[in-house]
Amino acid sequence: MYRKTVIVVAWTTLALIAFATLSPIGLRPHFGGVSLERFGAFALVGLLFGLAYPRHLWLVLTLVGGAAVGLEVLQHLTPDRHGEVRDALVKLAGGVTGIGISLALHQTLKRFITLG
Question: Which DSSP string do the residues of 53-80 spell out, in sequence order?
Fold first, then answer.
């Protein structure tokens, strides 16, 4: 049950980020500085996908990294957006950070379950 819920939340979060990234600029939510938003959004996605698929971290890294770069490239297809390399790098850094946190959480939980 837990894993299925995390999977649904992970994919939903990625879909919402894609919508916010590719929708007209006026529809984009604002939570703070844009770099912090990008980093935080992809850290959350990395964390969720890392928790959803803990045995497939290379696939998760590829998916999150591909989404970060792909969304920046796709912004060139919208009239009021423009993708930038530095934005992709911020998203990649956030994604890798989230995946790292998920790995640490998974290892910690595994240790507690083994000891308990």
Answer: -TT-HHHHHHHHHHHHHHHHHHGGGSTT
